[in-house]
TrEMBL record:
Post-SET domain boundaries: 573-589
Domain YDG: 145-301
Name of one Pfam family that matches: SET
Organism: Acer yangbiense
Entry GO CC: chromosome, centromeric region; nucleus
Domain Pre-SET: 341-405
Molecular functions per Gene Ontology: double-stranded DNA binding; histone methyltransferase activity; zinc ion binding
GO terms of biological process kind: methylation
Keyword list, A-Z: Chromosome, Methyltransferase, Nucleus, S-adenosyl-L-methionine, Transferase
Protein name: Histone-lysine N-methyltransferase
Region (Disordered): 28-61
Domain SET: 408-559
Amino acid sequence: MLILHLQCRSNLMGIFFVYISVAMQQKRPGRGNDQKRPLDAVKGQGREVRPRLQNKTDGEKEIVKSQGDHLRCMCYSNSIVDNCGKGTFLKLKETLRLLNLHYLSLVKEEKRCNNVEVSDIRIVNGSKFNILEKNESFNLGKEFDLLPGIKVGHQFWSRSQMLLAGFREHWLGGTDDCMRKSNSKLEEFLGYNFPIAATMLLSGEYEDSVDDLLEVVYTGQGGNDLVFNYRQVKDQDMRLGNLALKHNMDHNVPVNVIRRQDCAHSYTGKVYTYDGLYKVVKCWADKDVSEFTVFKYHLKRLLQRSKLASKDQSLKLVGFTYIKCVKVAENVILPQSTADHGCNCKRICTNRRSCSCAKRNGSDFPYVRPRRGGGRLIEAKDVVFECGPSCKCGPGCTNRTSQQGLKYQLEVFRTKDKGWALRSLDLIPSGAPVCEYTGVLRRTDELVNVYENDFIFEIDCWHTMNEIGVREKRLCNVLVSTSDLVGMTNNEEESEREPEYCIDAGVYGNVARFINHSCEPNLFVQCVLSSHHDVRLARVVLFAADDIPPMQELTYDYGYELDSVVGPDGKIKKMPCICGTGDCRKRLY
Ligand SMILES: C[S@@+](CC[C@H](N)C(=O)[O-])C[C@H]1O[C@@H](n2cnc3c(N)ncnc32)[C@H](O)[C@@H]1O
């Protein structure tokens, strides 16, 4: 089956190649350990509550901690391990998170200064935090193979992300760089003609049927009036990318294919999907409509993208009522928002010095709003103070990001082995709020049928802030003044007496109750205070930890302490984790 729409568009939209020529690659040093590790921010944050083993001594706490560390070391053993001892996939994920953090920080900086849009090039060259200079790139020397750590179907939002993933720098410079000497293992390619294409970017739009797209007819590059009318104005030459693809065919060397699409949620306005390896099976000269010579290449895919799971399974959701906002149990009193909680900003809060809500967040705003899309949380925090009912700003204020409702089309679907699950039909950018965990806000000690209820979420903002149990304090956090908080006590005895609260989504809830646990999650849990400042009663909001492509299951780390769940018989309950990630800890609790 030849896909002609690609044939027509590819040349018009421009194709970029990565070539391999000759020379040896300098091995770059691995990443240092002194970096912030954004992934830590999403580990161990879910808090589905089970009866905890009470009154642990300090010694016991220590054991739990070191057990956690031990598990973390062990869990990499099943995955591809690189020099730094980390699973490649995980390391790539961490690095992309670092890049996203860098991007959001740049947006913040730019907004403050001159409101210039943050470009992809600016991200790559950012002087303050130049990831590339720190040699964060992956997959060096893997040009002609599937790139480890990058699954077919992986979506990148920018060229800088791809660059970090190990797609070669050359293509950022376009075809000018094609003759640059590259770094492949020469001995493998002795006797080959160069250049050879390692990666090609198909810039044409493609339809939804792309999942079945196994063959492409690509029109070569050159002779095209890219500035004015995208028409062919002269013959193409058999050189540069055209010659490279021919060499791919001659030597039976596959080429990695990336497809580019427009995307409103992406800061570059584009999304790049990694489509795996293709083989060039045929190449011929042809005449286009204006009778100019063009080269055509017939490419066949070597690997198929995995089939999407159960897209059309019908859904029977029984036994719960959908609620958009948290319901408060009768005996729980939410503190009233008082005037001194609110800021005096007009319409939207922009001045971090005068806005009292920004002051509570460490004299800065936790969110940025890039030109495209809604507000995004720059990084996970112990607690986020949003504007609330006593604030003078309006509902569109960026500091109310998590209150602005669902932005993405979410779909509950049936999994093979974990029951129901949640995914998005849209791309979700990192730092975007996905949904709030709604249900009935109640005292944990008043829960009934706790053993049969899989939908209880312990509000443990306080635990995170104080690193209780396996909760890890969030890195790069600002110190939250306890005078800004209600329900905070540093006295452990007092805190034991304080009631604990949870959100019970057993009977009332929303889509969040279908989100499964993963040891390598793509969401993180964020406590948010907006209408009051009692941390024990904070709202629980799930944010995207990564740029999440459509149809990827949404997951967060439930963060159970191992052996912390006891059954009705008083015995410790154990539940295997089947998240299936390379980094799986093998037990949910
Ligand atoms: C909040 S519910 C998630 C939705 C659930 N899958 C359903 O069908 O309603 C939590 C329950 O899902 C199951 N679950 C979620 N993640 C899991 C995982 N990684 N491994 C095993 N079971 C999991 C467990 O039974 C857990 O108690």
